[in-house]
Specification:
single chain, about 450 residues, 3-stranded parallel beta sheet, 3-stranded antiparallel beta sheet, about 45% helix, binds glutamic acid
């Protein structure tokens, strides 16, 4: 059996880290099994879906590097849902119900007050033809509910293990609105059947949907036992609360705007909630090698922005020049080369920080000449080029011998003169990048 997994976001907002985790796990699972990965937009909610969110979803997934093999949009598939309507109705599994939202709300409250699980009481099933005609005569248009079999539901969840739902807790779900537009509960199943989905991997918030959808699969003639279900526990914030209030700050676009590396996001999300350690991966292939769905546990993992920040640095420090060349060029640093990248890389918090160190090596810098006699003496001792990683040690040893200085008194004035800054990448690697001509002039107090 070849694996087909899918990521099915609703284009009602920007993707956040929680969505990205589901997308990534589906992508990794499909790749790991040489399978296919489908991107499906669940956009049957016309009021809340927006084209700009749909575009943003594609853009954000591309940014993460999660390419899809097939694409579908539910709003293009309305005829398939209409077909399912007819089939379910003919099979006696779909029935019209006339309650208004207010009436349903009232029923729910009464059930809760009696200590009963709030679920639809199936009053519509007991309506006589005359009562139905009267309601329709009043101008009421029915919505359509799926008649669940009164049975318990169980499946072997690939993350949660054996999962069981008592039939007594499930209420007949609405599958079609009064205007016959399908709800997600139905359209998702029709799509999963049509696209030959073999594995449904989604958030724990869908566990009760699965209990209901397993019956819809069967009612539409599919074998629900042939589909693997995995429900990942949802990410929480540091205090254990949901991330929903932080969607803005934890959206992928916001992280991208802040200069977070996509591989930092992927590295963290692939390991949160697993028994494996969080590590900085430089690319998705590296990540794929260690991926195993069975390592995901049931505990709710905490998403810590500070951990992402640390990982971002670690990822950046591992990125090869080839991985960043295009982005550096787009930042106006087309003359950056591999040697300069490797010299400045260990000092970066963000890729954009590379511009500063590029300028220190390739553009005129005003030296900080706090100690001009000392730096002029050091200038006299600068060895001839060619320079390499050993030049710094040889030169500073000579300066030390001549001036008697050591430690900070030796190194700090040199750094200030050479770079105009009191901190930065190791001078051992930076010095050959600055080059003799600029170094000499800066040590002499000149802008160079
Ligand atoms: N549109 C649903 C969501 O974003 C999809 C759930 C599913 O994967 O079936 O939560």
């Amino acid at each position: 059996m070849s694996v087909v997994a899918r990521f099915a976001p609703s284009p009602t907002g920007y993707l956040h880290v929680g969505n990205a985790r589901i997308a990534l796990v589906n992508w990794l699972f499909a790749r790991k099994h040489d399978g296919r990965f489908l991107l499906r937009l669940d956009d049957t909610d016309l009021e809340r879906s927006r084209p700009e969110y749909a575009e943003a979803i594609e853009e954000d997934l591309r940014w993460l590097g999660l390419a899809w093999d097939a694409f579908a949009r539910e709003s293009d598939r309305m005829d398939r849902y209409a077909d399912a309507f007819e089939r379910l109705r003919a099979a006696g599994r779909l029935y019209p119900a006339y309650e208004t939202p207010e009436e349903l709300d009232y029923k729910r409250k009464r059930q809760l007050a009696r200590g009963e699980p709030p679920r639809y009481d199936r009053a519509a099933l007991r309506l006589s033809d005359a009562e139905r005609s009267r309601l329709e005569g009043e101008g009421r248009r029915p919505h359509w509910r799926f008649r669940l079999a009164d049975a318990d539901v169980a499946w072997g969840d690939l993350v949660r293990g054996p999962t069981h739902f008592s039939g007594a807790h499930l209420g007949d779900p609405v599958l079609f609105r009064a205007d016959r537009r399908p709800l997600y509960t139905l359209s998702s199943v029709v799509d999963d059947i049509d696209f030959g989905i073999t594995h449904v991997i989604r958030g724990e918030d869908h566990v009760s949907n699965t209990a209901v959808q397993l019956q819809i699969f069967a009612a539409l003639g599919a074998d629900p036992a042939a589909i693997g279900f995995a429900h990942l526990s949802l990410l929480t914030d540091a205090g254990g609360g949901g991330l929903s209030k932080r969607h803005g700050s934890l959206s992928l676009r916001e992280l991208r705007r802040q200069g977070i590396e996509p591989m930092a996001v992927n590295s963290l999300l692939a390991r949160l909630g697993t028994s494996d350690p969080v590590e900085p991966f430089a690319d998705l292939d590296e990540l794929l090698a260690g991926f195993d769905l069975s390592c995901f546990g049931r505990a709710a993992p905490k998403f810590d922005p500070a951990e992402l920040e640390r990982l971002n640095e670690a990822v950046l420090h591992r990125l090869p020049f080839a991985a960043v060349r295009g982005r550096l060029a787009a930042m106006g640093l087309a003359d950056m080369d591999a040697a300069l990248w490797e010299a400045v890389r260990p000092n970066l918090k963000r890729l954009s920080d590379a511009a500063e160190w590029h300028a220190v090596c390739r553009r005129p810098v005003a030296p900080v000449a706090d100690d001009p006699e000392f730096t002029a003496a050091a200038a006299d001792l600068l060895p001839p080029e060619p320079w390499d990683a050993g030049t710094w040690a040889a030169w500073t040893a000579a300066v030390k011998a001549r001036t008697g200085r050591s430690g900070k008194a030796l190194f700090q004035p040199l750094r200030l003169a050479l770079t105009g800054r009191d901190h930065g990448p190791e001078l051992k690697t930076l010095l050959p990048q600055i080059g003799r001509e600029r170094a000499l002039a800066r040590l002499q107090g000149k802008v160079a």
